[in-house]
Design a protein that fits this description.
The complex is a heterotrimer of chains A (231), B (584) and C (119). In chain A, helix 5 packs across helix 8. Chain A folds into two domains: 98 residues, Ubiquitin-like (UB roll) (Roll), CATH 3.10.20.30; 129 residues, Fumarate Reductase Iron-sulfur Protein, Chain B, domain 2 (Orthogonal Bundle), CATH 1.10.1060. Chain A is 31% helix and 13% strand. Chain A contains eight helices and seven strands. Chain B contains 16 helices and 22 strands. With 584 residues, chain B is α/β, with parallel strands linked by helices. In chain B, the strands form six sheets. In chain B, strands 1, 2, 6, 7, 8, 9, 16 and 17 form an eight-stranded mixed beta sheet that branches. Chain B has a four-stranded antiparallel beta sheet with strand order 11-14-13-12. In chain B, strands 3-5-4 form a three-stranded antiparallel beta sheet. Chain C has one domain: 3 helical TM bundles of succinate and fumarate reductases (Up-down Bundle). Chain C has four helices and no strands. The N and C termini of chain C lie far apart (58 Å). The chains are: A alpha+beta (231), B alpha/beta (584), C mainly alpha (119). Chains in contact: A-B, A-C. The interface between A and C is medium-sized, with 24 and 17 residues.
């Protein structure tokens, strides 16, 4: 199979380049990650992140033929050759397929992603109805792979000020949690032309999410809560 | 060499490390977490089915029954004081996670959802219990993210993508921190700490067919072995019965807890023969052996007869969508079947290391020393899969792993606080303390004829073939011989890539060194134990032998020495659970 | 900017964008139909179209909505791409002047014009 890989080693390369690679591999039943690791076994200078290899840890997000995907759950047979693999767009490249995720993590931290409940803790669990719990479905499953945020043009233009779809989805996860008492503060934190309203609802994030989540819908719900609070 | 100084240092950013870090971060001490991956990429994230605690939300339950099941599940090799401690603390540990925000699934009355898991019983071996608390089939993900979030809230210092190299110890044996390397820059770093906790997770990548993440390379075990400390019970590896055939990805026991069951090629529910009472919810070792036997005796499914079917379509679309959405996803992606319509092809896959770094129930690493077989190594702690407390004995029960992480993570964190109060001043670091680590790094600057990736592949094949579900003297010996050859090849290995920045080839080489130590410990310990107990099945010694082998194995690297230490049969407050035959 | 908390603004602007979009969605086709129903052939026909007060009020309202909508859109674009505060401010002012001027001019044309012809 034919691959075109983004290569860049800051110690030796003046600038990034695309490398053509032929790999002898039977694609049936294999994922893109299998192929990348097979290439690395031949040429160990190729660097990429990987861990769980089953789509739950979020390490191996890359841009494949123009789309952000997790290499470990992208079936090899469905990709058009030459398979072009690049690092996630919009983040600084450290080497080859590895980007500096800090701008992404920083936005995640900025939404204060932890449950706030200052009421005295009962000695047992806080109760939550199945209906209230169902509000978290589609929000808590995020694996922080950054596929969505780095497919969002608004994040490309304003990575330091726009929270991005992943961060906003996590903000919604806590706003939606019946046990969280900080909704007002969370809405205050987000109500900003840059932090929230850079989102124009173009839904690139929805298309990119490898877990099938819908950040745009969550952002819409945050906006309607803000409107409700105002009128 | 750059040096950073902290009060407490945690090596490993999975569930155990993050729970311990949280305990320390809530105090005024400076705590750092070193992790070779961003913490939410740790393998805890893959845990599916749940965390076991006798909350009695669905059905009658008591922690004493949980304790009995855990002792029996571990085939009486578990230390009963630690098991009592874990089962007692389970409920409060789970409630605490709930308070931190873990999005547990809920029952209609708003309480935490619980499902039945293998090896769970009421009334000390009676009817099936319903004890495993779950967040759909993503409990580990929910748990890890919750703990990470709490650590952000409490301002824990994270060294993300730093690879820990070696323990730093002084002449009196005190642990004073670790040497590490920034993966991003390749720069070595000395991290001094008055107390250090190893929470580096398992080493399942030592087998060819493994459910484990690629990062599970036993790094903490390698560090401990190089420091001259022993590893305990390394012959006990759990093979999870239901990995996706040919891939290894896990299909949670929760599938069987929700009502799924196994079928052989004749469509027979074969577990009824092996475990008439518990059937598909017998201990994992029992089910894995049963599947291995079915396959070996020609009753496997598929063209090559190398798997069995896990049927769950009868549960209905709704249950699967609500309770097992992740499983459905995995099955469609990796097995090409929608479990709501067709059975999932499954086979046993290496899953969990019951052995590890010996500790007491405070998480203190213990080793034979002047005054006894279990003396704490001052300043050094270990929790989670890398540690052997031992609560899982010879076979871990499903749902007890996440519990182990949070109960002992918290206990170790609390004990480390005590240690910090008792040892208020940092001890001086000996000169040249980092020399061994720097030499190891320098060694990989040299060129060599052998390739790391090839040796790693061969190592995993050797372990799969020689230390798998069934073991036998000659095969184990043969495996040791092959391991010796691999060690020689490793000595002649070199890197093609000696660059500094994010050189993952260098990391893989360092990981291979750690895996080699794990492999040797496993083979030597397995050869030594001439009985079958829990997950360790010797075809040449098929019976459990309490008279000679009701004891823990202690393996030391120096001369491949194997010692033993007694199993603690005396719990903290309740009566001892006496060994008896283990039937399900 | 280091600050990572909200400025507590933006919702109003966003609402204005949505509200004006609604107005435009209703009013633009309405006006269009009104014009197309009696397509004027000369200037007096054109003038007659604008004679009813409701047409002039509608037109001014619609064009105000259009200006506001355009303002939010242009502001969004500048916020995306123009990261120098000074340059952005200058562009904001330019757009405000153009849009506000256009609306004012329109007001003069549709209302001022009638007064002129009446006189």
């Amino acid at each position: 199979m034919k691959f075109r890989l983004h290569r860049y080693n800051p110690e030796t390369d003046a600038k990034p380049f695309m490398q053509d690679v032929e790999l002898d591999i039977d694609p049936a039943g294999k994922m893109l990650l299998d192929a990348l690791l097979a290439i690395k076994a031949q040429d160990e200078t190729l660097s990429l992140r990987r861990s769980c290899r089953e789509g739950v840890c979020g390490s191996d997000a890359v841009n494949v033929n123009g789309k952000n995907r997790l290499a470990c759950i992208t079936p090899l047979p469905e990709l058009k050759e030459p398979i072009e693999v690049r690092p996630l767009p919009g983040l600084p490249v450290i080497r080859d397929l590895i980007v500096d995720m800090e701008p992404f993590y920083k936005q995640y931290r900025s939404i204060k992603p932890w449950l706030v409940n200052d009421a005295p803790e009962p000695e047992v669990e806080r109760l939550q109805s199945p209906a209230d719990r169902a509000l978290l479905d589609g929000a808590y499953e995020c694996i922080l792979c950054a596929c969505c945020t780095t497919s969002c043009p608004s994040f490309w233009w304003n990575p330091d000020t726009f929270v991005g779809p992943a961060g906003l989805l996590q903000a919604y996860r806590f706003i939606a949690d019946s046990r969280d008492e900080a909704t007002a503060a969370r809405l205050d934190n987000l109500e900003d032309p840059y932090r929230l309203y850079r989102c124009r609802g173009i839904m690139s994030c929805v298309e990119a999410c490898p877990k099938g989540l819908n950040p745009t819908a969550a952002i819409g719900r945050i906006k309607s809560l803000l409107v409700k609070r105002r009128v | 060499m750059n040096t950073r100084r902290f009060d407490a240092l945690i090596v490993g950013g999975g569930g155990a490390g993050l729970r311990a870090a949280l305990q320390l971060a809530r105090s005024d001490y400076k705590v750092a977490v070193v992790s070779k991956v961003f913490p939410t990429r740790s393998h805890t994230v893959s845990a599916q089915g749940g965390i076991t605690a006798a909350l009695a939300n669905v059905d009658d339950d008591r922690w004493e029954w949980h304790m009995y099941d855990t002792v029996k599940g571990g085939d009486w090799l578990g230390d009963q004081d630690a098991i009592e401690f874990m089962c007692r603390e389970a409920a409060s540990a789970v409630y605490e996670l709930e308070h931190m925000g873990l999005p547990f699934s809920r029952l209609d009355n708003g309480k935490i959802y619980q499902r039945p898991f293998g090896g769970q019983s009421k009334n000390f071996g009676g009817d099936q219990a319903t004890r495993t608390c779950a967040a759909a089939d993503r409990t580990g993900h929910a748990l890890l993210h919750t703990l990470y979030q709490q650590n952000i809230a409490h301002r824990t210092q994270f060294f993300d993508e730093y690879f820990a190299l070696d323990l730093l110890r002084d002449a009196e044996g005190y642990c004073l921190g670790v040497t590490a390397m920034s993966i991003e820059t390749g720069e070595p770093l000395l991290i001094e700490a008055r107390t250090t906790l190893l929470a580096t997770g398992g080493a399942g990548r030592v087998f060819w067919n493994s459910s484990n993440a690629m990062i599970n390379t036993g790094d903490g075990l390698g560090m401990v072995l190089r420091a001259g400390l022993p590893l305990q019970d390394m012959e006990f590896w759990q093979f999870h019965p239901t990995g996706i055939a040919g891939v290894g990805c896990l299909i949670t026991e929760g599938v069987r807890g929700e009502g799924g069951y196994l079928l052989n090629r004749n469509g027979e529910r074969f577990m009824e023969r092996y475990a008439p009472h518990a059937k598909d919810l017998a201990g994992r070792d029992v089910v894995a052996r049963a599947i291995a036997i079915e396959i070996a005796e020609g009753r496997g499914c598929g063209a090559r007869g190398d798997y069995v079917d896990l049927k769950l379509d009868h549960l209905g679309e709704k249950t699967i969508a609500e309770k097992l959405p992740g499983i459905r996803d995995l099955a469609i992606r990796f097995a090409g079947v929608d479990p709501a319509e067709k059975a999932i092809p499954v086979a046993p896959t290496a899953h969990y290391m019951m052995g590890g770094i010996p500790t007491n129930l405070h998480g203190q690493v213990v080793a034979p020393a002047r005054f006894g077989p279990e003396e704490p190594v001052p300043g050094l702690y270990a929790v989670g899969e890398c540690a052997c407390v031992s609560v899982h004995g010879a076979n871990r029960l499903g749902g007890n792993s996440l519990l182990d992480l949070v109960v002992f993570g918290r206990a170790a964190g609390m004990h480390m606080l005590e240690y910090l109060r008792d040892n208020p001043y940092a001890r001086p670091l000996p000169d040249h303390a980092a020399e061994a680590s720097l030499a190891r790094l320098a060694r990989w600057e040299q060129s060599g004829s052998e390739r790391v990736a090839a040796i790693t592949d061969d190592l995993r094949r050797v372990m799969q073939a020689h230390a798998g579900v069934f073991r036998i003297d000659a095969v184990l010996r043969d495996g040791l011989g092959k391991l010796g050859e691999l060690e020689t090849r490793l000595a002649h290995a070199g890197l093609q890539d000696t660059s500094r920045v994010f050189n993952t080839a260098r990391i893989e080489a360092l990981e291979l060194e750690n895996l080699m130590g794990v492999a040797r410990a496993t083979l030597v310990s397995a050869l030594n134990r001439t009985e079958s107990r829990g997950a360790h099945t010797r075809e040449d010694f098929p019976q459990r032998d309490d008279e000679h082998w009701l004891k823990h194995t202690l393996y030391s690297r120096e001369g491949d020495q194997v010692d033993a230490k007694p199993v603690r049969l005396k719990p903290l407050t309740v009566e001892s659970i006496r060994p008896k035959e283990r039937v399900y | 900017m280091k600050s990572t908390t909200g400025s507590h603004t933006g919702t109003g602007t966003w609402l204005v964008q949505r509200a004006t979009a609604l107005v435009l969605a209703v009013a633009l086709p309405g006006l269009m139909i009104h014009f197309l129903a009696a397509l004027p052939v000369d200037f007096s026909g054109w003038q007659a179209l604008f004679l009813p007060l409701w047409v002039r009020v509608m037109l001014l309202l619609t064009m105000t909505a259009l200006a506001l909508h355009a303002w939010v859109g242009m502001r969004d674009i500048f916020m995306d791409y123009v990261h120098s505060t000074g340059a952005r401010l200058a562009m904001y002012l330019t757009v405000i002047v153009i849009l506000a001027g256009s609306v004012a001019w329109l007001a003069v044309i549709v209302f001022g014009g009638t007064q002129g012809s009446a006189a």
